[in-house]
Amino acid sequence: MAALDNVKLKEVLADVASGALQLPDFQRDWKWDDDRIRAIIATVTLDYPLGVVMTLQTGGSSRFRARTLTGAQLDEEREPELLLLDGQQRLTSLFQALCLDVPVETADARGKPIERWYYIDIAKAVGPSADRDESIVSVPANKLLRTDFNRTIVLDLSTTDNECAAGLFPLHFVFDSQRVNSWKKAYIKADEDRNWDLWGQFDELVLQQIRTFQVPMIRLAASTSMDAVCAVFERVNTGGVPLNVFELLTATYAGDRDFVSQTGDYYRLPDVWREIKQGLAGKYPVFGRLEQGIEHGLSSSDFLQAVALVRTWERKQAGAGAAVSCKRRDLLELPLADFDRLAPQVAEAFAWVGDFLQQQCIVRSADLPYRTQLVPLAAVRAIAGEATEGLRAEEMITQWYWCGVLGEMYGGSTETRFTRDVEQLLAWIRREGDAPDTVTEAFFISDRLDNLTTRNSAAYKGIYALLIKQGAVDWHFTGAPLNPGRLDEYAVDVRQIFPKSWAQRANGQSRPTNSIVNKTPLSYRAAQDMTGAPGSYLPSLVAASDMRPEWFDDVITTHLIDPDALRSNDYERFYADRSKQLQDLVHAAMGKRTMHRDATGDDRR
Q1: Using N-to-C axis directions, what is the helix angle for 458-469 and 571-590, rounded to 10°?
Q2: Which residue in 56, 157, 304, 454 is a FRET match for 22, CA 20 to 30 A apart?
Q3: Those residues with Cβ within 8 angstroms of residue 296's Cβ, 6 or more apart along the chain or in another chain
Q4: DSSP-derived secondary structure letter, 595
C-alpha cells in the first residue's frame, strides 16, 4: 500500500515546477510566515531532518482534481504523477524561496502580507552551526532594507555587485549551477584574497548540503481507498486544521472524468451547495444567516448526511446495501452521479422541513432546538414524499419531533439515531411498524423545568416555541397571538416575568428564579415596561393596551400564567401553577404523561 524512500530535494522541487507533483484540491492554501520560511531554509542548509512528506500515486479509483503548488506555473495543464498529502507548507516555502525569480509572498509576525527575497550570509554560514538561523536574511521585494521609519537605507542588494560586497548569496537560484558559478566569479573578484577561501568553505558546508539534501517521502499506492486517504491525511497533516468530508468530495467530484467528458467542465460542489443553501436560508432563516457565512446553521455536512441516508435506504431496498447509514465512510463513497440525482430531491425535502418548522413556530436559527434532528426528517420526506402529508402522518411526525426535542434525544451521538429514525419513522407513517424509539424512549421529568435556564438546552427552546404555537399574545402588541411572521418585527425573545433580584428577595430561594418557568416570549417593547414586581408593572401594560383589566387577564393566561398570582406578586403560587401548566403543554406535544420524581429520587409517571 505504501513505500518509503529518500528523494533529493532538487528533484522534488523540479517535480513541483513541472507539475509532476501537485496538490489534491482539498488542500488549503499555503500560508507560512517569514520566520518559518527562514527557519526551514536553515534546516536544509544544515542537512537537518525536514520531516516525512506523504504523497499519493495517481491513476487509482480515488480521483481528485489537482492544482499546482503556489508559485508553480505550467505552460499547459498536465496530469500529476503524485499528489502531495502532507508537506505542502514545507515544499511550497522551499520551492518559492529556492527556485523562483520572484519574491516570496508571505507574512510578517503580525500576519501582514509582505514580499521577501531570501539570502544567506556567507561569513556567518561557515561559522558555528548554532548561528545558522541568523545567517538566513530576508529583504523586501525591492531588495532595500531600511530603518528609521523607512528613511534610511542600511542594505542595498539591488545589484550583483552589492550582493557580493555584502557577502549575501541569493538563494533563489541555488540549484542553477550556471548562475551560481557566475555569481561566484563576481564574489571572488570583489575581494579575491578574502573571498576565495571563504567561498570554498561556503560551497562545502552549505551549498553542497543543499544540493544533496534528501527528503523522506512516503508514496501511497494508487489503489488506496478514499476513506484511507482521508484518515491518513488527517493523522499526518501538520497544519492543524482538520479536513472535512465536503472538502474531500469537492476535490473528488471535480476530478470525475466521466462528468468532465460529458460536460466539458468539472463539477463544482461548492457552487452547487451555495445555490442550495442560499435558496433555503433566503426563504427560511431557521437554516442560518447567510451574512454569517455559508456554513452558518444548516451545514454542508448536514446536507451530505441527508443525501447519504436516502442513498443507503435506496440501496438497502434494492438489496445492494446492508444498512441505512450516513457515517463518514458512506459520505466518502457517495458517487457524483447519485449526489447529482438526489441533491435536488433532498433540497426540496429541506424546504418542506422549513415549512414544518414554521408550523411549530420555529423560524430563527437561534431558536432551533436541534439542527441535527432535521437531517433524518429531511431524509424521510425525500423518501416518502407526499406520504408525509395528511392529518395522521403530520400528527405522527409532529409527535416524533417534539419527543426528540423535549426528551432531548439528539444531545449525544446522532448517527445511530439517524438510521433508526429514518427506518422507524417511515414504517410508522406507512403503518408498517410501531412508533420509533425516539417516541417510545423519550420522557420528560417534571423537575427538569427547574433546570432549563438557557438556550443551551433543546427543551428550553422547545417550550419557548410551544408557548408561541399554543397562542401566546404579546403584552404590548395585543391585537392577535404571536406568529412566526411577527417574531423579528416585534423583537420577540425570552423575557423574565418576575425580575430575578425581586424574586430572590421575596422568594427566599425556595423556587428557581432563572428557569423557563419564570420566562415567556414577549416583545422588546413589552419588556421595556416590565420593571419591578409584576404587581407594579401590570397597570402600565394594561393602560398601554387600552383594555379592561379583566380582558388583559385573558392575555396573560395565553402564556399559561395565573393573572391573580401575578397581580398579588405571589411567586410561590405563580411558579407552582405555571409548572403544572407547562408540564401539560409538554405532555400534549409528546403525547405522553410527564414523569415525576418521588421522595426517594426514583422516576414515576
Answers
A1: 90
A2: 304
A3: 288, 289, 290, 365
A4: B
Q: How far is CA 448 from CA 39, 366, 438, 582, in A?
A: 57, 21, 18, 11
Cα separation, 484 vs 142, in Å, equals 61
Under 8 Å between Cβ of 361 and 483: yes
Give the Cα separation of 219 and 439 in Å (integer). 50
d(CA 295, CA 303): 11
Sequence letter at residue 561 = I
Q: Is 574 left (phi over 0), alpha (psi -120 to 50) or beta?
A: alpha
CA 29, 34, 39, 41 dihedral sign is positive
- Give the CA distances from residue 323 to residues 309, 327, 332, 465, in Å, rounded to whole numbers and listed in that order: 10, 11, 16, 35
pTM, rounded to two decimals:
0.75
Spatial CA neighbour of 589 closest among 498, 463, 489: 463
DSSP E strand stretches across 172-317: 214-220
Q: Please, what is the end-to-end C-alpha distance for the chain in angstroms? A: 58
Cell 508559485: give the residue. Answer: 71
Residue in 492, 544, 260 with CA at minimum distance from that of residue 363: 492
> Rounded CA gap, 481 and 478, in Å?
7
The DSSP bridge partners found for residue 170 are 119
Asked if residue 295 has pLDDT above 70, the reply is yes
Inter-residue contact 495 to 520 (CB < 8 Å): yes
Cβ of 353: how many Cβ atoms within 10 Å? 25
Burial class (CB in 10 A: 0-12, 13-18, 19+), 347: buried
Residues in the chain: 605
Q: Give the span between the Cα atoms of 398 and 436, in whole angstroms.
A: 13
- 382, 310 in Cβ contact below 8 A? yes
Residue 22, beta-bridge partner list = 83
Paired residues of 493 in beta bridges: 522
Residue where the block lists cell 499555503? 30
Q: Express as a percent the part of the chain with pLDDT over 70.
A: 92
- CA distance linking residue 262 with residue 570, whole number of Å: 74
Q: What is the pLDDT of residue 599?
A: 43
- Residue of higher predicted confidence among 146 and 312: 312
The whole-angstrom separation of Cα 57 and Cα 115 is 33
CA–CA separation, 139 vs 106, rounded Å? 12
Would you place residue 110 in the very low, low, confident or very high pLDDT band (cuts 50, 70, 90)? confident
Residue 146 DSSP symbol: E
d(CA 323, CA 317): 10
User: How far, in Å, CA of 276 to CA of 236, rounded?
Assistant: 33
* Strand 214-220 with 53-57, pairing: parallel
- Identify whether the C-beta of residue 11 lies closer than 8 Å to the C-beta of residue 53: no
Residues 6+ apart with CB under 8 A from 453: 460, 512, 514, 515, 516
Q: What is the DSSP string of 101-133?
A: SS-EEEE-TT--EEEEEEEEEHHHHTS-GGGHH
**Is residue 158 classed as helix, strand or coil in its secondary structure?**
coil
Question: Please, are residues 139 and 116 in contact by the beta-carbon 8 Å criterion?
Answer: yes
DSSP-assigned states of every residue in 178-203: HHHHHHHHHHHHHSHHHHHHHHHHHI
Tell me, what DSSP letter sits at residue 205? I
